[in-house]
């Protein structure tokens, strides 16, 4: 379980997170909604320890994470799949996936590679292809596949639907649900509120660096303000 309490982040004078308190319970999908600049990516970067808070606490299973380096966070099973599907364009699909397993020493890496191919058969078909030649949707699948190769306990996904054809978005969200059902918790940052609320258990709405609203996803789908701002009325 991840717990953030009263987290404040500054970029110079910009007060980007203004006291965020949130929980990612084991086995759940949690959505973080919000418009541009609300602080969603900052929250994920903070959890990955790429940014240090000025104030507040961050714990995993009751232990502070605030002294951990980003590489330690990965070793503890918190794997960040960043915005804009950052794959290595000159490496092949297989090489990109193997990068995701770099910190592992166990013997199940090959099995997990097959698992990624079973989630995303398109990646198997393109295994020797350079990642830079894949479509946007395929690159997103590769970025998620690479994160799975890190054996996540908690998967941090930053806008997996951004710039992707609706049919692939549906496929990707189906796989996110499946990954979760097989035991991985997910913290999902999204602007596609419809899809995100449909697959998640609980959601937080970030506005200008603070949590404006939170609740069970099914309740937020029926909330007038959420419908007006994020669900097209
Ligand atoms: P988007 O969906 O547009 O990525 P977001 O909700 O993820 O938005 P963040 O990227 O977390 O928002 O940004 C939160 C605030 O912090 C914004 O006001 C942004 O301008 C500011 N910010 C983010 N990164 C930096 C940075 N490196 N330097 C200065 N300010 C930053």
Question: Can I get a quick summary?
Answer:
The protein has 233 residues and is of the alpha/beta class. It has helices at residues 40-47, 70-75, 93-99, 109-119, 121-125, 136-149, 166-181, 193-199, 217-221, 224-230; strands at 2-11, 14-24, 29-33, 55-60, 63-64, 78-81, 154-158, 185-190, 202-207, 210-216.
Q: What does the model show?
A:
- The chain is an alpha/beta fold and 233 residues long.
- The chain has a single domain, classed as 3-Layer(aba) Sandwich (Rossmann fold).
- Helices cover 37% and strands 27% of the residues.
- It has ten helices and ten strands.
- The chain has helices at residues 40-47, 70-75, 93-99, 109-119, 121-125, 136-149, 166-181, 193-199, 217-221, 224-230; strands spanning 2-11, 14-24, 29-33, 55-60, 63-64, 78-81, 154-158, 185-190, 202-207, 210-216.
- The strands form two sheets. It has a six-stranded mixed β-sheet with strand order 6-7-8-3-9-10, sandwiched between helices. A four-stranded antiparallel β-sheet has the order 2-1-4-5, with helices on one face.
- Helix 4 (109-119) runs antiparallel to helix 6 (136-149).
- The chain is globular.
- The two termini are 34 Å apart.
- Bound molecules: adenosine-5'-triphosphate (ATP).
- Residues 11, 14, 16, 34, 36-42 line the site of adenosine-5'-triphosphate.
Widest β-sheet, arrangement of strands:
6-7-8-3-9-10
Assign the CATH topology: Rossmann fold
- Our Rg estimate from Cα atoms comes to 17 Å
Tally of discrete structural domains: 1
| CATH A-level architecture | 3-Layer(aba) Sandwich
Which regions are unreliable across 5 or more consecutive residues at pLDDT < 50?
Answer: none
Question: What are the secondary-structure elements, in order, as H or E?
Answer: EEEHEEHEHHHHEHEHEEHH
Overall average residue pLDDT: 93
